[in-house]
Amino acid sequence: MKTIKDSVHDHIDVQGIARALLDTPALQRLRRISQLGTVSLVYPSANHTRFEHSLGVYHLADRALAHLPARQQRAKRVRAAAILHDVGHAPFSHNVEELLARRTGTYHDEVHDRLDSGEVGDVLREYDVDPAEVADLVAGEGRYGQLVSGELDVDRMDYLVRDAHHTGVPYGTIDHSRLVRELTFRDNRLVLGEGNVQTAESLLIARALMNPTVYRHHVARISKSMLRRGTEALIDEGEIDAEAVSEMDDPELLVALRNCEPAAIYARRLDDRELFKRAVWAELEDVPEHVVDADHETVRELEGQIARKASVPEEAVILDVPERPSMPESSSRVVVNGEVRPLAEQSPLVEALRAAQHSQGRLGVYAPQTRTEAVGPAAVDVLGIDVDDVLVTEVRGYPATLSEFTGEE
User: Fold this and answer.
1) Could you write out the three-class secondary structure of 1-59?
2) Residue 400 pLDDT greater than 50, yes or no
3) Of 13, 74, 133, 153, which residue has the fewest beta carbons closer than 10 angstroms?
4) Within its chain, how far is the Cα of 324 from the centroid?
């Protein structure tokens, strides 16, 4: 057994199969992948990693298994899945995941190949555990997969508390001890036991408050968009493919970006925190449906149209169209008067939080600070946005030359 001091859960005892997995290269790589990607450009102390989060998820899963009816072999698989659940993450966590998934067809929780090969596969087989079964649990499949990835998973319980702790934002605080203790199964569904409607609501509220404050903070979205654009330029250059990028860690990706001419401008700006600014910041209800639902190719075409209308380089325009708001936690289930009921049917808070989340949705158009005055009106025109409730940034007093972005004199 190994005891590790953790900033959130105090002391974590790692033993058995999890202890054997702890020092594998796949898990140690997570020490070099930031939990919140570029959010540290907003909250400087948000430098925690996927490694410590994985330890926290293992710890909570281990505590849940103390009272859930799991035989020894099944519990072993769940503990392995909990500590390995993030080994499929690309550098900077979710920031470039969609980009890489378009090229590779694989998301971070699809880890069958990663768990079957290398030292991880050797350790799992040494403990008589099938890597495929562990990978299924990571993907949320089966009865106990819900504990690792589901509406009431221990992944969510750890990252909300951990992200709140490291950002200094108090909104992610939840009673994770009670949540873990009250988990039970009804008809193979993971639910919260009797008397826990407010416990389930606390998880919902925490996520609803952390979204605009941390996860979707406008500076985090701008820096994420710049990192994604640079990574796309790196892959399009042809020397490094998406599969290779997905296996990098954060420092490796930054070095690759700095050494690739089309991507280097984004890397330099991220290094120096010389970020693009908002040229347009529009509520989704003011944006035409075809723009909100645009695929990646359409977004790139719209960026080109905006750049041409504004007479700026295409590289100086980023259109950030967020996914439509969702609230998976609202489908969690609680026992009320002996019956299992969806939280959305039991709690009047759900509809209010859904409305609040919908109102927080924003489309962004970003550009270098000297370009926002030209890009903002051009974007409003190209996208057909209702301008009454739109922030169109006007920045005056900057030289109108290409040198600011392209280096040309």
Assistant:
1) CEEEEECCCEEEEECHHHHHHHCCHHHHHHHHCECCHHHHHCCCCCCCEHHHHHHHHHH
2) no
3) 13
4) 15
Render 369-399 in DSSP notation, one character per residue. Answer: GGGHHHHHHHHHHHHT--GGGEEE----S--
Helical H segments across 188-284, by residue range: 197-210, 218-237, 242-246, 250-258, 261-272
Q: How many CB atoms lie within 10 A of CB 46?
A: 23
In 3D space, the residue among 363, 102, 367 whose CA is nearest the CA of residue 232 turns out to be 102
pLDDT of residue 389: 58
List pLDDT tens digits, range 328-365. Answer: 777 889 999 999 999 988 888 888 888 888 788 899 99
H/E run at residue 116: helix 112-116
Both tokens of 332, joined, read 């969690």
* CB neighbour burial string for 133-168, b if at least 16 within 10 angstroms, e if fewer: bbbbbbbbebebbbbbbbbbbbbbbbbbbbbbbbbe
Residue listed under structure tokens 């994604």: 228
Four-residue CA torsion sign, 339, 342, 345, 348: positive
Residue partners of 320: CB distance under 8 A and separation at least 6? 221, 222, 225, 363, 364, 365, 366
Nearest to 267 by CA among 252, 254, 286: 254
Question: What DSSP string describes 183-214?
Answer: EEEETTEEEE-TT-HHHHHHHHHHHHHHIIII
C-alpha to C-alpha distance for 100 and 88, rounded to whole angstroms: 12
Residue-wise burial string across 318-346, b where 16 or more C-beta atoms lie within 10 A, e elsewhere: bbbbeeebebebbebbbbbeeeeeebbeb
Using alpha carbons only, what angle is made at residue 32 by residues 326 and 221, rounded to the nearest 5 degrees?
A: 35
Phi, psi values for residue 283, rounded to 5°: -65, 140
Give, in order, the Cα–Cα distances in Å from 297 to each of 102, 228, 293, 313, 319.
Answer: 11, 14, 12, 18, 12
Reported as type and span, the H/E element at residue 277 is: strand 277-283
